[in-house]
Amino acid sequence: MPQPGAHRATPMRPELIALVVAACQLGAAGTSPGLAQSAQWPPTPFIQVTGQSTPDPKDEPTTARGVHWDFSNHPRLVLSDETFIDFRLKLQWDYRTFSPLPDDPADDTEWSLRRVGVEGQVTRYVEFEASFEIDDPDEPWRAVYVNARPFAALQVQGGHFKVPFSRERLTGPTNLDFTQRAVGVRLIAPGYDTGLMVHGRVWNRRVRYAAGVFGGAADEIDSETDVPSLPGVRPLQTYDDQLWAWRVTLRPLDWKAVPAWLRRVEVGANAAYSHVDEGRYGWRGRAVFGQEFFPAVYVNGKRTRYGADAELEAGPVALRWEYLRGLDERLGQGVADDDLPELDVGSWFVAGAVVVTGERKADVERPRRPLLRGGVGAIEAVARVEHLTIGSRETLGEPASYSPRSVNLAGNRDTIWTVGVNWYPDRLFKVQVDAIRERFEDRTRTLLGGQDTFWSYVVRVQFVL
Asked: CA–CA separation, 375 vs 424, rounded Å?
């Protein structure tokens, strides 16, 4: 998240242009087995290069014998039929404009993502991943974990990875339909943490579950720097410091008697429980680009999160809904050391996407007619409405107050509309254009004094290898 007041313009670098040109050539080669095979890199006699299709990075490797490279999807070193290593590179570059210009605007341009990593499997029973965020000195390691899967119904994952909570939070940044995650998801849902998780899928994959215990780093926030006070991997501490979370998803209509397009309806529920330290560590209301519209208040005690979501993806259409709520206890935080009503934050969003060029939504990242093969790529239109409220859970008949120790905290509300277009020229690139309208309920606490409505426009160029 850009620092407040850091308003600067960063031009597109020459090396990015060179990367784009080279990647386009690689994208064309990836769609043509002949081009991929002619590359013959590395030029070692016993290492082969194959261009067979691998639609999913987690799928088993090709059946060619011996050690070989596969560039059909991304660089993959195949060591055996069931052991391989994928080398990944993910880049996102954003350009933004604002109307009116906030007091503390976000950067005009920014590398929102520069991530490198490896992932793969060792036999069919062990998966692994290690990813590193470039230019993030506070918490550079993202996912660093090992997953043992003796059975589909019982798998054990340990390391540093996302807490199993929130459908959108668990969606990777390069797979989002919008340039920005929903503000409620960013505020309420925990992100990466160090822990141990049991998960699996049962009942012919109709039900998926996950439950784990984590170190609580997602809630270890310093009120001045607003970054994890102990970034990276840290051991589990006492019970009060830990974060417990679970998530379950179900496909209730996956039956032959139900129309095919309805069978893919999936619903989910999740919850997380942790402890929040005494002090001004309560949730802060933050706008789309990080500006504060509800300051931290004094809290102490349990932090509870819960939510539900649903998704329908059928043909070229996808519909999503998610509801999240979080409660912070305020034990002994009154002016007379009395207990105060909980700090309450709630959010929901409804989003939709439709691929106008005919591809299925599940295949939109692999257009049927890529740009460099005489087509236009894949194009989809997206829209989302979201709502975030924050304040006291109860008023107890007291008037609203801006004091961080008040019984009835003067709340605020943020309503956001986003419309956009996503263009996939080939399997490596994605261009997103979003228009975002944000409106605050309390005019005294917005991004610009007296102004309650703001527009933001974002253009994002993405490259994924």
From this structure: 11
C-alpha torsion sign, points 135, 139, 142, 143 = positive
- The pTM is what? 0.82
Q: Is residue 420 a part of any domain in this protein?
A: yes
Does residue 62 form part of some domain?
no
pLDDT in tens, 176-226: 999 999 999 999 999 999 999 999 999 999 999 999 999 987 676 443 333
Query: Is a pLDDT exceeding 60 seen at residue 422?
Result: yes
Closest CA to 241 of 274, 212, 213, 272: 274
User: pLDDT tens digits for 80-126?
Assistant: 999 999 999 999 999 999 999 998 888 899 999 999 999 999 999 99
99 exposure class (CB count in 10 Å sphere: 0-12, 13-18, 19+): exposed
Q: Which two tokens stand for residue 405?
A: 């120790």
Query: For position 220, what pLDDT does the model report?
Result: 60
> 23-41 burial, b for 16+ CB within 10 Å, e for fewer?
bbebbbbbbeeeebeeeee
- Residue 11 is classified by DSSP as P
Burial of 291 (0-12, 13-18, 19+ CB in 10 A): buried
Whether a cis peptide bond, with omega within 30° of 0, leads into 100 is yes
User: E strands of 203-242, at which residues?
Assistant: 207-214
Residue 308 lies in a domain: yes
Domain holding 451: CATH number?
2.40.160.10
pLDDT tens digit string along 149-180? 999 999 999 999 999 999 999 999 999 999 99
- SS3 label, residue 218: helix
Domain of 207 in residue numbering reads as 14-30+82-464
